[in-house]
Amino acid sequence: MLVYSIKRILVAIPVLLILVIVSYLVMVLAPGGPTSSERTLPAAVIANIEARYGLDQPLWKQIYDYVENVVLRFDFGPSFLRRDLSVNDMIAQGFPVTLTYGALSFVLAVAVGVPLGVVAAVRQNTWLDYLAVGFSVGAQVLPNFVMAPILVVIFTVWLGWLPAGGWNGGAPENLVLPVIALGTSFMASIARLTRSSMLETMNSGFIRTARAKGMPMRKVVLRHALKPAMLPVISYLGPTFVGMITGSVVIDYFFSTGGIGGFLVNAALNRDYSTMMGITILIGALTILFNLLVDLTYAWIDPRIRY
Amino acid sequence: MRAPKMHPAAAAEPFVEAAETGVLVADEEGGGRSLWQDARRRFFQNKVAVASLVWLAIVAAMALIGPLVAPWDYESVDWSVLGNIREAGRPSIESGHWFGTDELGRDLFARTMQGTQISLMVGIVGALAAVVIGTLYGAISGYAGGRVDGFMMRLVDILVSIPYMFVLILLLVVVQASAFLQSIPGIQFIALFVGIGAISWFDMARIARGQTLSLKNREFVEAAIATGVRPFRIVTRHIVPNLMGIVVVYATLLVPNMIIFESFVSFLGLGVQEPATSWGALLNDGAETLTRGTLWQIGFPLFFFVTTLFAFFFIGDGLRDALDPKDR
């Protein structure tokens, strides 16, 4: 187990390094950058700007410095576009916002999806089951960028209950729509997954034994069936996390919540490569870390898994 | 790839050439029905799947024929409605704007049909790319086995853990920015197709590898090896055709995911570029004018998006029920 964890971490390091180097090369190869503007700048000015961003160094030195700054000082350098904000400032501003509504959606998706799936499986082929299945099929075709406008039409345009966007320091009424829009499709996937794995578990021998000895249904489900049925759901939490982070791009764009995804889209539309790169690397690192945690949890819960 | 053991004398002339595409099942009349005929019969008994297929055919036909019969094309502006989109730009038969106009006075019917064309194309081409790469990769990995297999699958494990949406966005931005790449016609589409397809083949590779592992010890593969067929040819002629059932199911389920993927990117304004459009770009345009009382601008694209995705999912489910022998 320990050996496995160390091995996984050791594999993650070169992956991250490759991600950094490839994105840096793409950035250097891409035309435009801090020196491009409408007017042709004097050579001295260009040289000055290039020196500021370290672009006058040989390529290997640039990459080395960048990696060194990121790894040792957690410094993603200045933004190519905005003179007032460094990439670190943007992350410091946007990340808490993304984390707030992301974590809430995550909790919502699990807290509603799992019970829904369990109930649907236990009451198979009743109206509850059909409702849950219908909901999870429906939510499949309603990804966050479709959910968001629909929610705004209903709750802002027709009912006038909630604001259409803005962050407002994380006020509850500003949080409701982003959290629901982001969480729904994952909630549906988790419900579907829980249902099918619960059905499989409920048909296995040890559940029949538990029921045969007269154990109440409630206890059978909670004590015996739930834990093994949760295993596929746990392995789905990794992709859910990635999806949440990716989805934050849409949420920030649509609701102007000012999270990290909003900075990414702005950077992408304005060709601010250093910001894009910084955010991509940060998210890549988090993704790899989270996947690792999920895999370790999985191995810890399921004693059949040996590495 | 390591060559499997083969008898030198048998290497000359391969006589088992034809792929074993299906097991023949004898029915009462004494004739034979192949796996595929069986599957087709089962599929057509599934009413939801057939209805979805019909709807998909209607959408595809509309997307192809619609722009030809529409009185407006997708990029010209109707100056008479401009400035009064809310009233004059409403969906109506008389004005010729069957679905109304968008915020810039362009005909929404023509735009929706054009967007449908592009979204369907991205979905199908992207899924095709993912399926071809994934199947070949998985089949080769599974057939080679041993260290090659370990390396190839570990590579997939590593690649899976990278957040691709961000890499794709980076790629699209670079393509857009590069004057040289922009001189190639349709480069934006190509980048989108390739980008989306290239990052979606991992699951397919894993599925194909698993199936290959169980196929490669079967008699017909042994026969092929014994008659001296080369490993790559065994993979393409004997292994891959036998993977077709599962590949078809997975590909159908992949298409809607590709469409969602493309719509996501276009919704952010990073995918298809004006005046061309796609469902994601149309949804974005419609979403921007939500509060101005022009709900048809999001309603029509949303309707086509949702119903078509539903159709694809139902067809995929129908195919799975028809082709997967486990659930029978």
UniProtKB/TrEMBL annotation, chain A:
One of its GO terms (biological process) is transmembrane transport. InterPro entries: BPD_transp_1_N, MetI-like, MetI-like_sf. GO terms for cellular component: plasma membrane. It is found in: Cell membrane. It comes from the Bacteria. Keywords: Cell membrane, Membrane, Transmembrane, Transmembrane helix, Transport. SUPFAM superfamilies: MetI-like. Residues 95-294 form the ABC transmembrane type-1 domain. Pfam families: BPD_transp_1, BPD_transp_1_N. It is a multi-pass membrane protein. The keyword rRNA processing does not apply. The chain crosses the membrane at residues 9-30, 99-122, 142-163, 175-194, 233-255, 275-301. Belongs to the binding-protein-dependent transport system permease family. This is Oligopeptide transport system permease protein. It comes from Hasllibacter halocynthiae. The lineage of its organism: Bacteria, Pseudomonadati, Pseudomonadota, Alphaproteobacteria, Rhodobacterales.
From TrEMBL, chain B:
Keywords: Cell inner membrane, Cell membrane, Membrane, Peptide transport, Protein transport, Transmembrane, Transmembrane helix, Transport. It is a multi-pass membrane protein. Its main location: membrane. One of its GO terms (cellular component) is plasma membrane. It is found in: Cell inner membrane; Cell membrane. Residues 116-316 form the ABC transmembrane type-1 domain. The chain crosses the membrane at residues 48-70, 118-143, 155-181, 187-208, 239-261, 298-319. It holds the Pfam family OppC_N. It comes from the Bacteria. GO terms for biological process: peptide transport; protein transport; transmembrane transport. Signal peptide: none annotated. SUPFAM superfamilies: MetI-like. PANTHER family: OLIGOPEPTIDE TRANSPORT SYSTEM PERMEASE PROTEIN APPC, OLIGOPEPTIDE TRANSPORT SYSTEM PERMEASE PROTEIN OPPC. Belongs to the binding-protein-dependent transport system permease family. OppBC subfamily. This is Oligopeptide transport system permease protein OppC. It comes from Hasllibacter halocynthiae.
